């Protein structure tokens, strides 16, 4: 990397610091810190929702799939997300927002104590938090792999540097800092992505990408290729529908932070459209990489080598700044929502005095929790990071276990499942995780489709079946569900319990 590249990277970090300190002036309470008090415009919420799905993993693990297998990477990842978010715009987006507006909910899991019971809320909170620690560790490993490739920075130092930088702006700016960083990430990604597309077009000819398919190895233009099967794409479609509409808790926050339910729906539709179109701009150069940097033994290095081969000084720095932005924004997003879960759902059960803290003390507690959570994920990344860890974690662990965690969380919002109570919720969660363990570690030669899809399918069947044979709906639960059908009247106050939380 040249001096100009490092100047661009340094400039990016100065912007991040400025965003953090500007956002600090908008954060006075935990409502500001976690859900921006419902003041984020729908277009900014939609862009943030879209960009929160990116990290350096895309330019490491997914770049390897594009290099080795071709266009199939688009069909099993962004296409499934775009379709799933489009469905969720009409099913879940507005209901998440109304939880905040009508019930003063500040954490996606906060309503579960009232919808089911406290034990259900706690098992989902603990298992989801543990999953997120591992998920974020994979993101740290991904950015460190890119730093090694571009600047020969050791993995450990790359993780430490990026982690500290993320904590520096996240702990002061909360969700506002997160969504504004997402917006900056969107601009950087647009410039860098289009620059890479133009560079590849200049290398391969103006008729790129239409004529490259005949020059690539056979099968690179097939929707199903390599380890990707039709069943895997179908499994991902179901998993991503739940994951990106609230099962990935930080994305529920985007809907909650919009001004109203109708605006949350608009933000979801914008995110869906971006998922269907924009990843093609990013993936086409990755798919064409074998024509420019052929013979790589490790496909995870393909985007790094492509950037070195084609991009001039300055643009490499912008590309690296984009990688930082992807990872830091996603980790900041995850950290904020996990902090919300710990602060609002876990800590008050372990130490009831937390509920009686002043607003200022609660905000301090949230910021300290953010630092501790990010530090733990960095420690895990340093201890377990290595080749293959990224893809294994993201695909086999996160995607497979997200279903059992999200089924009771997501379906509990819908009126069609009002009969389902805590028995259905906990049984479906436990059954899904048990099936994942059996398929992943006991069954020989299980396919990725089975590892990803069977846990979610098991949880779904158990949840629906138990709800039918053992209904547990009550008047209070029915009232909560029905309250989410419409936006509140203008000027109506939310309905918290005396401790400032949804009544349990």
From TrEMBL:
Reactions catalysed according to its record: L-proline(in) + Na(+)(in) = L-proline(out) + Na(+)(out)
GO CC annotations on file: plasma membrane
Keywords: Cell membrane, Ion transport, Membrane, Sodium, Sodium transport, Symport, Transmembrane, Transmembrane helix, Transport
InterPro entries: Na/Glc_symporter_sf, Na/solute_symporter, Sodium:Solute_Symporter
CDD domains documented for this protein: SLC5sbd_u1 (cd11477)
PROSITE patterns reported for this sequence: NA_SOLUT_SYMP_3 (PS50283)
Name under which the protein is recorded: Na+:solute symporter
Gene3D superfamilies assigned: Sodium/glucose cotransporter (1.20.1730.10)
GO BP: sodium ion transport
């Amino acid at each position: 990397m040249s001096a100009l590249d490092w100047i661009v990277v340094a400039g990016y970090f100065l912007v991040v610091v400025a965003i953090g300190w500007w956002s600090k002036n908008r954060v006075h309470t935990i409502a500001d810190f976690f859900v921006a008090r419902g003041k984020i415009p729908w277009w900014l919420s939609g862009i943030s929702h879209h960009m929160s799905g990116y990290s350096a993993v895309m330019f490491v693990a997914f770049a390897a799939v594009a290099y080795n297998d071709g266009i199939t990477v688009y069909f099993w990842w962004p296409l499934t997300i775009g379709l799933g978010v489009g469905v969720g715009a009409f099913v879940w987006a507005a209901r998440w927002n109304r939880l905040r507006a009508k019930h003063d909910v500040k954490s996606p899991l906060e309503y579960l104590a009232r919808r089911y019971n406290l034990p259900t809320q706690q098992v989902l909170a603990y298992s989801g938090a543990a999953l997120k620690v591992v998920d974020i560790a994979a993101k740290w490993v991904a950015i460190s792999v890119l730093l090694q490739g571009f600047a020969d920075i050791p993995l450990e130092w790359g993780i430490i540097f990026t982690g500290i930088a993320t904590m520096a702006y996240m702990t002061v700016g909360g969700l506002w800092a997160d969504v504004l960083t997402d917006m900056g990430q969107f601009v950087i990604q647009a410039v860098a992505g289009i620059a890479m597309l133009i560079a590849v077009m200049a290398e391969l000819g103006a008729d790129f990408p239409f004529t490259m398919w005949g020059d690539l190895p056979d099968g690179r233009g097939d929707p199903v290729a390599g380890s990707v099967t039709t069943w895997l794409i179908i499994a991902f479609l179901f998993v991503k529908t739940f994951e990106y509409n609230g099962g990935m808790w930080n994305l529920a926050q985007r809907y909650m932070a919009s001004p109203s339910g109708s605006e949350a729906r608009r933000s979801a539709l914008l995110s869906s459209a971006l998922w269907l179109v924009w990843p093609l701009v990013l993936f086409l150069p990755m798919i064409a990489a074998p024509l420019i940097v052929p013979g790589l033994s490790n496909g995870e290095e393909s985007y790094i080598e492509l950037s070195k081969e084609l991009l001039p000084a300055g643009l490499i720095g912008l590309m690296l700044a984009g990688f930082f932005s992807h990872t830091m924004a996603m980790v900041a997003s995850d950290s904020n929502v996990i902090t919300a879960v710990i602060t609002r759902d876990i800590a008050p059960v372990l130490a009831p005095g937390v509920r009686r803290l002043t607003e200022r003390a609660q905000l301090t507690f949230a910021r300290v929790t953010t630092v501790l959570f990010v530090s733990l994920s960095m420690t895990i990344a340093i201890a377990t990071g290595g080749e293959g860890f990224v893809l294994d974690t993201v695909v086999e662990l996160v995607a497979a276990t997200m279903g059992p965690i999200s089924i009771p969380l997501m379906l509990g919002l819908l009126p069609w499942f009002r009969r389902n109570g805590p028995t259905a919720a906990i049984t479906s969660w436990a059954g899904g995780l048990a099936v994942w363990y059996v398929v992943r570690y006991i069954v020989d030669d299980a396919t990725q489709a089975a590892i990803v899809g069977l846990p979610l399918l098991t949880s779904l069947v158990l949840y629906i079946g138990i709800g039918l044979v053992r209904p547990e709906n009550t008047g209070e639960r029915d009232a909560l569900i029905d309250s989410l059908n419409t936006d509140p009247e203008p000027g109506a106050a939310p309905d918290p319990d005396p401790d400032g939380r949804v009544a349990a």
